[in-house]
Give the backbone structure.
Amino acid sequence: MSNELRKPLISGNWKMNHNHFEAIQCVQKLAYLLTKEDFSAVDVTIHPPFTDLRSVQTLIDADELRFILGAQHCHEADSGAFTGEVSAQFLAKLHVRYVIVGHSERRQIFGETDEVVQQKLATIQKHGMTPILCVGETLSDREAGRTHEKVLGQVRSALVKRTVEQVKSMVIAYEPIWAIGTGKTATAEDAQHIISAIRQEVALVTSGPAASAIRLQYGGSVKASNIGEIMSQPDIDGVLVGGASLDAAEFARICQRSQRSWG
Ligand code: PGA
């Protein structure tokens, strides 16, 4: 399917790395390395840990930087007795615009189920933010030939209660779990194959129109050296980058090599 209408979205998921001083330094370096033209060609979201959000937001606002502030997680409830959790409502107040949902680390380590993912999607969109929904198969799913079943099942479950308009404004990141932080990447053709199946699934669930609008990312050991190949695939509209986003120079190269004519 053509990607002419969709502007590439490059997201840096810092996970539990960089304290707020390091975060400021990293964003300042990135701002120095990226040009106005880069920001016209790609959207760049940065997802620092919660304790860095306020510092990064202040820097973005004060220097009128074109980075889009993102979070890595939120709770599905707006407020209440949930010690240690963070409300989507508070994130929106901090000008956070994108929130990662259902990352495999949250699903596997913290037991986030498909049902909780559904609730979080609703809460994030209620507060006017864009969810980046992560889906992906384990190595054993893959070896058992269950990649499509697993990934498309996660997509279906997440989208069933969303309206067409809501689906259009979401992002889905396909992240094969065996490729995260391992240095192994799906081949670009493999990623394209599954991401195009995700787009077809979106078409099925929404009866059509959201499928060409929704932005679909690939994630899993993305680096400056493999980004060109990944972004040359017609259904891949961007990447969710973990390890390589911690280094400003490497992440800037990823943003710059992601550019293409998109209409
Ligand atoms: P990675 O992480 O780039 O370090 O593999 C990707 C992610 O978990 O989003």
